[in-house]
Specification:
Shape: globular
CATH class of the largest domain: Alpha Beta
Order of helices and strands: HEEEHEEEHHHHEEEEHHH
Oligomer: single chain
Largest sheet: 5 strands, antiparallel
């Protein structure tokens, strides 16, 4: 039995089991959701995101996301989602209250160098705090080495390409530190003063080199932010960064993204690929 959802499912009906129809003001599909069908539901007093995984692989990752978010809640200086996990039969789906803030993707081109420097320090602080969490009690559902996850992602979704970088990812990994795994600007929320307020979407989270998070944010940002981010990471971590490794990991991320975009275009043409990708 499949453990995922499609656009043909009665998703509105499933949502109305959680939030009564009479309390819903509006519901809209977020057409940029790659791994999940995402619906934003607004009530008179609040807003919520429902996520319905698009295949069995991401059903498993949704459970990991829930487990990981629950484990790290309150253990960093930043807001993270308070996920609730539900099931429709054997199909998992999640709901969380919308975290107020502005997506870094939307703000990046409007920011001064001074503000970008401050944001780089905030991001580096989050990376450091996440890596300092004692993971000994992390439940098994939340445990995965990111290189293994990315290898499985490639094997599951890429038709004519393989993750040739897997051995390199394994060689640079650190299975003692927790990392976000998909620390791109779309998953970083800013407050009204352009300070990093929250971090979302821990579907890729697990163990690995912190350089994977540093390189992910660099690869999805523009121009001068590369040097700003490296400097912020060095200052916050108190150690010199290996720029060669970071740059090679940026290339790895680009390769992974190219492969996954190919999968999306072939299998989910309804998904809107952002212009910034």
């Amino acid at each position: 039995m499949q453990k995922f959802f499609t656009m043909n499912d009665d998703l509105d009906g499933i949502i109305e089991r959680i939030i009564p129809k009479e309390n819903i003001v509006s519901a809209r599909h977020i057409i940029t959701g790659w791994t999940n069908i995402v619906i934003e539901v607004t009530t008179e007093n609040d807003a919520f995101f429902f996520r319905f995984p698009r295949n069995d692989f991401f059903s498993k990752m949704l459970v990991k996301d829930y487990t990981f978010c629950k484990f790290i809640k309150g253990k960093t200086s930043f807001v993270t989602p308070e996920l609730e996990l539900f099931y429709d039969g054997k199909r998992p789906f999640s709901m969380h209250r919308k975290i107020r803030g502005y997506c870094l993707t939307d703000r990046m081109k409007h920011l001064s160098r001074q503000t970008m420097t401050s944001i780089a320090y905030d991001i580096s602080k989050f990376i450091r705090e996440l890596g300092e969490i004692d993971s000994s009690n992390l439940p098994n559902e939340g445990r995965m080495d990111l290189p293994d996850f990315l290898g499985e992602l490639a094997d599951t979704h890429f038709d004519d390409r393989s993750l040739g970088h897997h051995d390199y990812l394994k060689s640079t990994s650190d299975n003692s530190k927790l990392i976000h795994g998909d620390l791109n600007p779309g998953n970083i929320l800013l407050d009204e003063n352009d300070n990093v307020a929250g971090v979302i979407d821990f579907c890729f989270a697990g163990f690995g080199s912190q350089y994977l998070d540093v390189s992910r944010i660099i690869g999805r940002s523009k121009g001068e932010f590369r040097d700003i981010m490296i400097k912020g990471y060095e200052d916050v971590s108190g150690s010199e960064a290996n720029v060669g490794i970071i740059d090679r990991l940026v290339a790895v991320w680009n390769d992974i993204e190219t492969g996954y975009i190919g999968y999306i275009k072939k299998n989910h043409p309804e998904i809107q690929i952002p212009d910034s990708v």
